[in-house]
């Protein structure tokens, strides 16, 4: 196996055919590691950062890609830290399911080769800051194997819990799996909405509709959350440009799912999601608070689930954020976690000191990778929060 380090944008672009071929080999190659998401993220957020993409080849054939970048981060106000981070993480975006894109036949070998190459052959970094790795991924296992004999300190960071559900083959079976109160509530929401003049559930299907729909989604999200959170999405030029581009790119491949609720031709709620393999991913949404009495968020979620079942999806994934409203629809949970690798020196010592003196040690204290259980972040069990 040969490992190549890609550091230029032209060489990044040259990977597209191999990248697209890999991403279709297994559903575990997530949407957030797909070519469209990764390349667009770099276009909008790459300024001031340096590419460090690892490419694994066997006999000239690409069998794995680990997309990383190097940035200089100011820590403790005075020190500069050279961080190695995954493409897709950083700026005002909140990724899910990062790591590497790979040929499943060679997953273990590629993972361990990447880990060894990062630890011994990638120069310049002081802190490797990986996020949103699947808890059962081969990458995590390989870092665990190396933790005992590596000169670097390898730590496991707090877990993110993600709510999802396996979908039955038809909507009625899904409904029957809900509690009686939830079934009655959804039926009431739908009946109330559908009796109104011009009530309509619609999917954006034409590329010519995307820009107008995107603007509407951004406006509804702002309207819904302005004054209720300081972490609004759809605010920065980078975020707006990135997601507009993502929508167009995914629509071209039949992967965009953009739904709306309309009353007499006016959009009152929108849901932004994706279809990737046999999974529907719910990413973002918004609604006009003037119509909060219709419960548009829950109503649109129910329509989206019904649509996903009708398409033959086997899983509905609500992505990061263990919020109470998601539990109205699904009960299954999966986990992603972060890894931090510190090279020996002052920076490592200061990070550990900061964790020890923090007033919120349960949230910030790194946990050794060798421990069976990691610390967990405490979610808000009720609030319906936005995601960035």
State the gist of this model.
The protein is an alpha+beta fold and 388 residues long. 35% of the residues lie in helices and 28% in strands.
What does this structure look like?
This protein is an alpha+beta fold and 388 residues long. It has two domains: 2-161 and 335-368, Gcn5-related N-acetyltransferase (GNAT) (Aminopeptidase), CATH 3.40.630.30; 168-313, Gcn5-related N-acetyltransferase (GNAT) (Aminopeptidase, 3-Layer(aba) Sandwich). The protein contains twelve helices and 17 strands. It has helices at residues 9-14, 16-23, 35-45, 107-121, 138-146, 171-176, 180-194, 210-225, 237-252, 296-311, 346-357, 361-364, and strands at residues 2-6, 50-51, 53-58, 61-66, 68-75, 79-86, 101-102, 127-134, 153-156, 160-166, 200-203, 256-263, 266-276, 279-287, 315-320, 332-342, 367-368. The strands form two sheets. Strands 2, 5, 6, 8, 9, 10, 11, 12, 13, 14, 15, 16 and 17 form a 13-stranded mixed β-sheet that branches. Strands 1-3-4-7 form a four-stranded antiparallel β-sheet, sandwiched between helices. A hairpin with a 2-residue loop joins strand 3 and strand 4. Helix 4 (107-121) packs across helix 5 and helix 8 (210-225) packs across helix 9 (237-252). It is elongated, with a radius of gyration of 22 Å. It starts with a strand and ends in a 20-residue tail after the last strand. Residues 359-385 have low confidence and may be disordered.
